[in-house]
Amino acid sequence: MQKDRKLIIAGNWKMNKTVAEALDLVGGLRRELASVKEVDLVVCPPFTALGEVSKAILDSNVRLGAQNMSEHSGGAYTGEVSAMMLKEFSVRYVILGHSERRQYYGESNALISRKALAAHAATLKPILCIGETLAEREAGQTEAVLESQLRGSLAGLSKEHMEETVLAYEPVWAIGTGKTATTEQAQSAHAFVRHVVASMFDETIAKYVRIQYGGSVKPSNARELMSQPDVDGALVGGASLEVRSFTDIVKNSI
Ligand code: PEP
User: Fold this and answer.
1) Confidence tier at 2 by pLDDT (50, 70, 90)
2) Contact 29, 43 (CB under 8 A)
3) Active-site position among 98, 120, 161, 190
4) Is 98 a catalytic residue?
5) What is the band of 22 on the pLDDT scale with cuts at 50, 70, 90?
6) Which atom of ligand 1 approaches the CA of 240 most closely?
7) Residues in the ligand 1 pocket, defined by CB under 6 Å
8) Taking the model in full, what pTM does it have?
9) List of long-range contacts for 28-33, beta carbons under 8 Å, 24+ apart
């Protein structure tokens, strides 16, 4: 289905793949997806593989993303990695506010907005994640949660920043569980997210911002999800770890 917004499909490899395994995977993707022009393709390996993967995708249609970064530009922050350090490896995108970061590392909306501002200062494009838990959905709070995450984690961003920001709607109950949101649930959440973006920025920004769906995306459900009017791509976890499944998701989305 042809949309005004170019689809963007990103693989979040999480804490998987040694350098050798990462090169194997990205080599396969580069080969299998060489002819794809309709979709922006992004891989997000762990920090340790960024350098080698960066070299392996030179002159290809695959772009590099990181899974996290510090809100600081440098200094005494043991274990952290700055935006400029990512830029050294030609990283273009950075996943921010993934639910695993929010859940296991206590990342707040305020912290995520500081990270987003730091990413933009270094011309990295955030892939900024939001999504409700099962308890929140069952309590009828989905829209309230999404609105408060959007208002909190996009706080301080300008319209120009938003032009270089990708959003990812990832219902927490669908991540790594095999449970996918129905197309109706995904479309309704995406339309709501776009509506909030319009009220925070303006209609033009809302019209052009790309909103990925994430949560157990597989080759078998990609086509239906991507055909929803407000779904502009996917953030893929488990199924991005194999050449076949990621390739089939991309091909089924076109
Ligand atoms: C994710 O972690 O962003 C994700 C969507 O994971 P999975 O595809 O495995 O559900």
Assistant:
1) low
2) yes
3) 98
4) yes
5) very high
6) 8
7) 12, 170, 175-176, 214-217, 235-239
8) 0.97
9) 28/243, 28/247, 29/62, 29/243, 29/246, 29/247, 30/56, 30/57, 30/60, 30/62, 32/243, 32/247, 33/61, 33/62, 33/247, 33/250
Structure confidence by residue, pLDDT tens digits, 116-127:
999 999 999 999
Instruction: Report the nearest-CA residue for atom 1 of ligand 1.
Output: 237
Query: How far lies 217's CA from each of 17, 34, 194, in Å?
Result: 20, 22, 21
Which of 43, 172, 175 has most ligand 1 atoms within 8 Å of its beta carbon, as the pocket-test mutant? 175
For ligand 1, what atom is nearest to the CA of residue 129? 3
Cα of 54 from ligand 1 centre, angstroms: 22
Marked catalytic residue, from 100, 132, 136, 170: 170
The structural domains of the chain, ordered by start, are 7-253 (3.20.20.70)
Task: Tell me 153's DSSP state.
Answer: H
Residue labelled with tokens 């830029």: 87
Task: Let me know how many helices (H) and strands (E) the chain has, helices first.
Answer: 12, 8
- Rounded to the nearest integer, the mean pLDDT of the chain is 97
- The rounded Å distance from CA 223 to ligand 1 centre is 17
- Three-state DSSP class for residue 165: coil
pLDDT digits (tens, 9 = 90+) for 78-114: 999 999 999 999 999 999 999 999 999 999 999 999 9
